[in-house]
Sequence to fold (641 residues):
Amino acid sequence: MSQVSETIVEREIDTRHMQVSTTEVAIDVVNMHKWYGDFHVLRDINLRVMKGERIVIAGPSGSGKSTLIRCINRLEEHQEGQIIVNGTELTADLKRIDEVRREVGMVFQHFNLFPHLTILQNLTLAPIWVRGIPKAEAEATAMHYLERVKIPEQANKFPGQLSGGQQQRVAIARSLCMQPKIMLFDEPTSALDPEMVKEVLEVMISLAEEGMTMICVTHEMGFARQVANRVIFMDQGQIIEENEPEEFFSNPQHERTKLFLSQILH
Amino acid sequence: MTDIGFVRSDMVSARPAPHRTTGAVAWARKNLFSTPLDTGLTILGLLFLAWIVPPLFGFFIGNAVGPNGTVEQCRMENAGACWAYIAAEMEFFIYGFYDIPEHWRPNIVFALGALLFVPLLIPKAPFKRTNAVLFIVVYPIVSYFLLAGGVFGLKVIPTEKWGGLLVTLIISVIGITLSFPLGVILALGRQSQLPIIKTVCVGFIELIRAVPLITILFMASIMLPLFMPQGMTVDKFLRAIVGVTLFTSAYMAEVVRGGLQAIPRGQYEAASALGLGYWKRMWFIILPQALKHVIPGIVNNFISLFKDTSLVYIVGMKDLLEAVKTKNDTALEWQSGNTATTGYIFAAMVFWVFCFGMSRYSIYMERRLNTGYKR
Fold:
């Protein structure tokens, strides 16, 4: 795994836009708890993400990392504490939830493209029906983002006709078409063949270069090392360790972190 | 060490597949006579056909009395089907007791229906939205006033006089166009998180599904008036339509629910994450996929409904089958050995043509909509 991720970025990362705001908070999670029935999945989560920050969340499976980012756009409900996204607190109020979701893009492990719509329709549906953008304009934007993810020629195909890597790039483009302020990535490369991981990571890196606020749940440690400002390590529903990538990888503090890193970095 | 090593030096280029053994003889050998058991079954099958086909051919065509024949020919000893009877009574089978000089009115309704409905079925035909509005909103109103009369100097013809294929088609078309959306709404309601909506939908579905259609028609025609205020009546025809529609919608709801359950959770999540609200999510993402999955079940219900319209005879309406039965029993001038049989065969054929048409169209639609997995 690390072989792939080590080779992903041979080029220099362009850091011109990668400044992190020190005053503007994008996401603020305060003393947040979540239960599935009686099972306490997320425990006392405190996480502040500044605008322009790129966070990688790592951890063993079942540690609650996916659940955490799914709480940020309320695909999962939290029971205690606060989650504030772009200044809007997430509550049961559906209007507020949709407000937040409009500004927060999400990329899933299994792409979740709409199989009955063409690629172009996948990209234009939400801009047209949520943002009320005219069709022609939405299509122009869609083509722009398809070009960015380097597959404009697939615009009129159906998702089932594309490779996994292409589908995931379409999924990223679909989120970008909504012009989100924040992007959440939920293990975006875990379901891909090794050869396709690179093309998806490259798109994510170029997003980071443009200063997008990102939270990525991923096992791509090469990506974390090169792109992230902060790596967050979770286990048993808690944040165990949090540090800059360099420190995190070379000098882990918690026993659990050391064990995890020794397992995945040979 | 190098003994087990292997490096390919030239790539194998693709070449056309070998020629398949084709031709009638090869086909027969492969499909009919490949094993002794196959051969035996083939021979048995041929014997069965030889036994069954000639008498059927004789009854339906060979010895049958054509549309221009007379009743005397039908009464002859070896006569087959009496098509002359069908031809002579065709008007009654189509219109029932609808006043004969006014038959042009149902004819216009039929023609208008075909004119509006056929383009709806053809995916490439233009103006789909206008067409649908005309068919679903304008057409029923125009048809009602044309058939019932009472406006523009048209003679009033009460629904009791309507009959035959006209009634069968009216009930089916209205039943199908109403029960489908109603079923979808019930299915969505059953999945709702709001307890009251959910309970109402579950209650309705389970109640209606647990009762035979005949009972519902009885209730609609006999018991409903008891609950109505004195002097207030609802047309019998309307009550039958409501009964059939509600009955089918409960079944439809369960079929649609099956489709909804087949949609992966990721589809809901992706749609939600893009900011689509509940109705947009359902309309653009979930329902198109769910309904596509259950086209066979939906059409199954349409076909059932079409055939179940023949039960409205219970409440005294003369649909196609009942019209045929009435003539069989009363047209003494056509009395012969095969008259009644021919009448029922005719009714069966009409039902079959419509149902088979629906079935074929649904298969065509399934293929057309199969984009998700098309390569």
Remarks:
- DSSP finds ten helices and ten strands in chain A.
- The first strand of chain A starts at residue 25 and ends at 36.
- Chain A has a mean pLDDT of 89.
